[in-house]
Amino acid sequence: PVLLEVKGLEAKIAATGQQILRGVDLTVREGEVHAIMGKNGSGKSTLSKVLVGHPDYEVTAGTATFKGRDLFALEPEERSHDGLFLSFQSPIEIPGVSNVDFLRMACNARRKSKGQAELDPLEFYAHVVPKLEMLKMDPTFLNRNVNEGFSGGEKKRNEILQLAVLESEMSILDEIDSGLDIDALRDVAAAVNGLKRPDTSVLMVTHYKRLLDYIRPEYVHIMEAGRITQTGGMDLVDQLEAGGYATLSTA
Ligand code: ADP
Ligand code: MG
Ligand code: MG
User: Fold this and answer.
1) Which of 46, 50, 52 for a ligand 1 pocket mutation test, highest count of atoms within 8 Å of Cβ?
2) Residue 244 has pLDDT above 90, yes or no
3) Mean pLDDT across the chain, nearest whole number?
4) Which fold has domain 2-94+169-247?
5) Are the beta carbons of 235 and 31 closer than 8 angstroms?
6) Tens of pLDDT, residues 198-210
């Protein structure tokens, strides 16, 4: 079954009117892993953010459905409750809110929308500790404020911890590999692989083959000037590594 279907998606920056997405088509089925690559500024993060409903962008044409529902008719929170997750390229700090409270609130909001009972603090602790261990995160991270003073690598681990806690069906991981040393990359990739289920999908945005060696995509897309201009397998990545984006450009 199709999880995410994007057709002819166009979007502009709300504040300036600048057109960024110029007709994106993308279909992601349950169980699939996709990667989007493309030059800086081609619109990869914009696509990710438009799908989760970031207020900086305005959709001007096209459609997107998630589990068959019109994504753009849903509030950002509803998209998250429905199982759509975005790991931000630059995760934000939330001063004054402890990580464990934030995670439990997000988890319970999603559970509630699935008709499941909310977890009390003790139950939540039991739910989250194995996930911390999977990410090799120290339990003290639970009591710190969300991302406050976290290193780049710790923020990325914390993003995947959120994904693990939410048990989202569709995860969009925007440059999850940026700023990670090789050990952290292995841990994060192992966690993402460990979270895969037959009904979940992953959409990774990355510049580097390294990540794709750890989380193998079935489909690789090249984004160029706000559109997906090519789709293939790992062979596209090898072409890129050999000759750069110029060899793949259709412009
Ligand atoms: P990528 O992730 O592929 O590197 P982005 O989607 O981040 O590209 O950006 C695409 C283009 O849109 C860039 O030129 C970027 O500067 C611009 N852009 C994206 N978001 C904003 C914003 N909120 N305000 C102004 N310009 C933006
Ligand atoms: Mg970029
Ligand atoms: Mg980006």
Assistant:
1) 46
2) no
3) 94
4) Rossmann fold (3.40.50)
5) no
6) 999 999 999 889 9
